[in-house]
Amino acid sequence: MMLRRGFILFLPRLVGLLVVACCSMSIVYMLACTPKGDNQQPALPRVHSPTVKEGYEAVLQEREEQHRNYIISLKKQIAQLKAELQGRTEQLKNMQNQYPDPLDIQLEHSKPEKAQANLLAFLRSQVDKAEVHSGVKLSTEYAAVPFESFTLQKVYQLETGLTRHPEEKPVRKDKRDELIEVIELAVGSLNKPDGVSRAKPRVYTASDFVEGIYRTEKNKGTLYELTFKGDAKHQFKKIVLFRPFGPVMKVKNENVNMADTLINVIVPLAKRASKFRQFMQNFREMGIQQDGRIHLTVVYFGKEQMNEVKSILENTSKSANFKNFTFIQLNEEFSRGKGLDVGARFWKGNNVVLFFCDVDIYFTAEFLNSCRLNTQPGKKVFYPVLFSQYNPSIIYGHHDSIPSLEQQLIIKKETGFWRDFGFGMTCQYRSDFINIGGFDLDIKGWGGEDVHLYRKYLHSNLMVIRTPVRGLFHLWHEKQCLDELTPEQYKMCMQSKAMNEASHGQLGMLVFKQEIETHLHRQKLSKKT
C-alpha cells in the first residue's frame, strides 16, 4: 500500500519532467533545421519579435533562390550530356559508314580495327551459337524452331493467326524489305568473281531464285537458305546467309548437283485399293514423267485386295515403262512403323533419300526437289509441314459441281490448314535412318511411331528442317469414330473430325444454316410487298 501511494504521488512529477524534455527537444530540432546563409547564424526569428512575418519571408526567399540556382546547374549538366551524346552518335555513324560490305566479311580472315574486331567477334559468336552449321540436341518436339518458306511472290507461313493466311504476299513492309534484301545479297554473291575460273561467268538474276527457307532464333538471329537454278538441269546453287541481328553474313556458297539423287518413296498399305489407284495417278505424273529419279516401295499387309493393288502397280509399270518399284508382302497385322522400317531396310543399293509417304498424300515434282535439297547425310533431315485438305463437299457445296482434284489443291484458309501436328511425312537419307535406330516396332496400327522417330532426330546432332511446303497435300478422307470408344475418346475423335471437315467460318455457316435461310426468306417476302 505504501509503495502504491508513493507511486501515485510521484506520477505528476514524472509527467512534468516528460513535458519539459519534449519541449527542449523541439527547440533543439528547430534550431538545427533552420536554414543558414553563407556567413550567418541560424535565421529562426524570435517568437516574441515584432518582425516574425518578415523573418519567415526572408527565409522562404533564400530557399527559393537556392532551388533556382540548383535548377540552373542541372540544366547546364543536361545540356552538356546532350552535346556529348550527339558527338558519340556522330562517331558511331562515321564508323558505320566506314564498315565494309557485310558479304565481304570473311569469318576466318578479317583483320579490322579493335572496335570492329570486337563487333565481328560478337557476330561470329552469334553464328556459332545458332543452329547454322549443325543441329543441337533438343528436349521435346515442341522445342524445334520451324522454318518458313518463300518464293519471289509468296510466303508460306505456319503462324497465321486471325488476319494472316497460310500462303500470302509479304504485305508487311519490314518482311518484304527483309526478303528482297536477302535475295539481292545472294544474287550479288553469286555474281561476284571467284578469281579461279577464266570462263565468262554466268550472270544470275532474281528470276533464277527457286525457293528459300528462313527461321529466326529469338536471341541469335535469322538463318536463310536460298536455292537458285544451276548451270544445267537438276543442278542448283545454294546460298546460306545469317543475320545476327546486324549485317547479313555469307556462311556458305556451294554447288548442289541433284541429277543422280534418287528418292525411294515408301508406302505402307493394307486394303484401300481405290485410294492406291488415285495415288498411282499422282505418282505416275509427278514422280515418273516429271521427275524421273524415283523408286517406289510398297509394303503390303495381309492378302485382302492384294491382287488388285499388284495389278494397279503392274499396269502403271507397263504403260509408263517404269521398272523402279518393289512390292513386299507381310502376313501380319498392319503397322505403319513396321511397314516403313521394312521398306527402308530392304533397299540394297547405294545410300538413298527415303520419303516416308501415305496413300492419301498428293505431292508435286517441286516437292521432290525440296526433299532432296533439305536432306544431307549425317547433317540434315527434312520434316515438311503439309497442307491438309478440308472436306470438298462442304467447301464446294454451294457450287454446281466439285472441281477436279488438281483444281482443289490450292493453299487458302477456306480450303485447308497446315498440319503442323503431324510428323509422318519425312525425308532422310537411309544411312541416317539406320544410324538413329529406325522405328519403334512395338507400336501397332496408326499413330505414335512418327513422333517417336522425330524425337530421336531432335535428340541427335542432326539438323531438323521443319517448314511448310507448297507441294505436299493430305487429301481429305472421312474419319470414323467407333462406338467402342469411351465417351471422352469419342468426344475427342469428333473434335478431330470437325477440325478436318472445314474451317471455323464454314462450320459456323452450317450451324446457322437454318437462321440464314430464314433471314433470306424474310428478305424475299419484304421485297414482294
TrEMBL record:
Primary site of residence: Golgi
Alphabetized InterPro entries for the sequence: Chond_GalNAc (IPR008428), CS_glycosyltransferase (IPR051227), Nucleotide-diphossugar_trans (IPR029044)
Pfam families, per the entry: CHGN
PANTHER family cross-referenced by the UniProt entry: CHONDROITIN SULFATE N-ACETYLGALACTOSAMINYLTRANSFERASE 1, CHONDROITIN SYNTHASE
Stated family: Belongs to the chondroitin N-acetylgalactosaminyltransferase family.
Localization per record: Golgi apparatus, Golgi stack membrane
Name of encoding gene: Csgalnact1
Chain segments annotated as transmembrane: 7-32
Residue ranges the record marks as coiled coil: 64-98
Source organism of the structure: Prunella fulvescens (Brown accentor)
GO cellular component: Golgi cisterna membrane
Gene Ontology annotations of biological process type: chondroitin sulfate proteoglycan biosynthetic process
GO molecular function, one term: metal ion binding
Membrane topology type: Single-pass type II membrane protein
Gene3D superfamilies: Spore Coat Polysaccharide Biosynthesis Protein SpsA, Chain A
Keywords: Coiled coil, Glycoprotein, Golgi apparatus, Membrane, Metal-binding, Signal-anchor, Transferase, Transmembrane, Transmembrane helix
EC annotation from Swiss-Prot or TrEMBL: 2.4.1.-
Catalysed reactions listed for this entry: 3-O-(beta-D-GlcA-(1->3)-beta-D-Gal-(1->3)-beta-D-Gal-(1->4)-beta-D-Xyl)-L-seryl-[protein] + UDP-N-acetyl-alpha-D-galactosamine = 3-O-(beta-D-GalNAc-(1->4)-beta-D-GlcA-(1->3)-beta-D-Gal-(1->3)-beta-D-Gal-(1->4)-beta-D-Xyl)-L-seryl-[protein] + UDP + H(+)
Name of the protein in question: Hexosyltransferase
